[in-house]
């Protein structure tokens, strides 16, 4: 059996939404989820995203400074 859930999260409530507010860019695309891990309790879900026409150094700095992110 499959379960599909659709939900919306305001940008300010989403870690990447808050971070991206600090960077000037034209467009961002977010892949729903990318599963990380091989099963069991260590499984995680991580977003996969593209940011178009952003200053790469500014984006990397904003992501690197975020306390809520484990790695970039």
Order of helices and strands: HEEH
The assigned structural class equals alpha+beta
Mean pLDDT: 77
N- to C-terminal separation? Answer: 34 Å
> How many independent structural domains?
1
Helix content: 10-25%
General form: globular
Description of the structure:
The chain has 72 residues and is an alpha+beta fold. The protein has one domain. It is built from two helices and two strands. The chain has a two-stranded antiparallel sheet with strand order 1-2. A hairpin with a 7-residue loop joins strand 1 and strand 2. The model has no long low-confidence stretch (mean pLDDT 77).
Layout of helices and strands, plus pairs?
Elements: H1 15-20, E1 27-36, E2 44-52, H2 56-65
Quick overview:
The protein has 72 residues and is α+β, with helices and mostly antiparallel strands. It has two helices and two strands. The protein is globular.
Key attributes of the depicted protein:
72 residues, alpha+beta, two-stranded antiparallel ribbon
